[in-house]
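User: My collaborator sent over this chain with a note saying "see what the structure looks like." That's all I know about it. Can you take a look?
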Amino acid sequence: MDAATLHNLISEIDSYVWGAPLIILLVGTGIFLTLRLKGLQFTQLLHSLYLALIKRKEDTDQPGDITHFQALMTALSATVGTGNIAGVATAIAAGGPGALFWMWVTGLVGMATKYSEAVLAVHFREKDKFGNMMGGPMFYLSKGMNSKFLGGLFAIFAALAAFGIGDTVQSNSVADALMGSFGVPHWVTAIVLMVATGAVIIGGIKSIGKVTGFLVPLMIVFYMGGALIILGINYAKIIPAIELILKQAFTTTAATGGFLGSTVMLTIRMGVARGVFSNESGLGSSPIAAAAAQTKNPVTQALVSMTQTFIDTIVVCSLTGLVIVVSDKWSSGLNGAQLTSAAFTTGMGSSLGDYIVSIGLMLFAYSTLLGWSYYGEKSIEYLTGEKSIKPYRYLFTLFVGVGAVSQLNLVWKIADIFNGLMAFPNLIGLLALAPIIVKDTKKYLFEGRKKK
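Assistant: Without extra context I'll predict from the sequence alone. Here is the result:
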């Protein structure tokens, strides 16, 4: 089989995995859980944001490895990534401004999914022989559903995805951004990234939690600050931009400039697909971090975890999308990170906008390396035991360097496939174990909070 044939085959598999069945299942599960939980993501949003961002008085005497906030930041480190910059732009470039509306819809129903994943992750977690917490879909599938097959299947997919979407493709993005904006050779980036990543992940989740607890808020505020400055400069265009987004979410968008036009179905598909890709609700990755939180109550951490999707999609993705629309670059024919860079440059009125996007992309990709290293570690540990932890950390660090100096066109597709395959066993678990999610939620809302 020649390279072209192999590439076409992998692309077809990728399109099938991320096709309509998975998208419908992901969104459908979110809607189902929203109904079962009676719209908890709306009624408890302010309380969850309070727990995550304001209260910050952690229950350090409770079982777990890291604080609620560090667990949230570790999960955010893995989800706030290239999807927030390039993914949003891809959705708008193909589906028009209306795609942003469907990203919002996906994010709102995805909050119920993210909440449910975290409830089950803490509910079914256990300690390894080192005293560290282990949890996530592989545990609630094997213990809650008594299906070691589905648990093992998820762990295999997650472990493979960790080396792809969570490792090599991220270091490759950093290397390309540094070369394009600052002329830094790929091999230099490889060495620096290997040292920077290895120094953190060798120390395990406590080290990762401390670094992400500092880095993630900083990088999000940096990127948001740039976007808000642009929206402030172009404040008169914000209302018309929102009107355009809402209008084109339900109507066919005509071809204009470099934009080829879009049907309503394409707009919906692109918005939903990129929204899911960005916040990872339903894929089963972030509950692995939630399981490490210091808490006795699954719902407390789940409410904190729920804010991850809100911050990722409703806040960060929205800012990227609004900048693209108000800058009028959405119809330029550009795509991906190039479109976002052009929008920031136009909106800022200088090349400073391009630097904000480049630096943001590098920080987002680096943080993703840290978050996904933990997801892969726990998946490998589940499959092969504690003896594999240290070798895995060294191997993951080595692949950071490999990714930075390699051409990864095919790896991107393969990584995307395993990322999508993770969702199937995870969603089965969420649907089957919904009664436990509802029971734990009712116990917290009607008993736990009354005692406080």
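A starting point for your reply to your collaborator: Residues 148-182 form the longest helix (35 residues).
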